[in-house]
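Subject: Sanity check before I submit

Could someone independently write out the structure tokens for this chain? I want to compare against mine line by line before I put it in a report. The sequence has 359 residues.
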Amino acid sequence: MKKIAVIIAAALFIAPLRIPEVSAVDEFSVSAKAAVVISADTGEVIFSQNSDEKLPMASTTKIMSTLLCIESGDLYEPFVVDSDAIRVEGSSMGLQEGDTVTKYALCCGMLLPSGNDAANAAAVKIAGSIEAFAEMMNDRAQKMGLSKTYFVTPSGLEGEGHGSSAHDMAILAMEALKNETFREICSSETMKLEYGNPPYTRWLKNTNKLLTLYSGTYGVKTGFTDEAGRCLVSACSRDGKNLICVTLNDRNDWNDHMDLYDRCFGMTKSISPELPAEFTADVAGAKEEFLSVGYDPVKLTVYESDADDFEYKLAIPPFVYAPVKIGDEVGELLICRNGKELRRIPLYAAEDVEYYRSK
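---
Independent answer below. Compare away.
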């Protein structure tokens, strides 16, 4: 029987939770110095190998840089790149002094050919300097609960203290993939863009070979430096289940990701919470005493277990104040297992409620 509890919440905003690790069911290991597989829906750990060890993560850093660039807005407004910013070693999208680009093009340049020039150009455009942008990256990491992560550069070229853990990078990827623009770019094998002086047509190719090697792969980012070794963050879907895999310092990353997906998809299942079609919330400032509340059904990839392991909680304020329109968010549905929170689903008003003042 399903367990449902109600939480009366004065405030609905709660800092993101860091999902604790769950032990793998066997002693399987990969060649990576650190690795993790998580549910892309809940953050629940399916496989872990030194996943909390802080290590250099090379250009997988650009997951955060791209996410912040997308969220900064004005993605299609042309501008001229900063000449100093694009003078950087390593991989490139081919930017030259005087080139006109858009932030969207820079995002593609970061996620596909892993352009260090694109990362630096985006950082200076958004924050005014690479140092200021790194502060933005670290602020966001802290809000995500990425306790082993510290950014010095937007590109992933090593700086003092620059690093993360496999688990932190998986959680970062999970958050980034919620952004439709990010997901569209990182899942593309090639992109046709226009930039330059004057802009002209270019084709960018994705460095992530898993997109073609392994069916169902839809991201995310490769990385390599001499210090970090080969790093890879990927995401994959199969039979309605979604997983994210991260390996750091892995000489056999393509095969390790494919092996991990083959094993971990078999250790998970997809669930659909089956709850009453409607809940109610107390209303203040209206003739009605109660407001009907609904939610969008979801499917969640979870570690194999019995259905009775799950409980559901409603996080709602003491009162919802009129007026309320259909679709207004009024609370959250929390899906938990063994006392640990897995996912929050928004609760919406299922009806209009008008403000009423008694005479």
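---
OP: Matches mine. For the report I'm noting this point. The longest strand covers residues 229-238.
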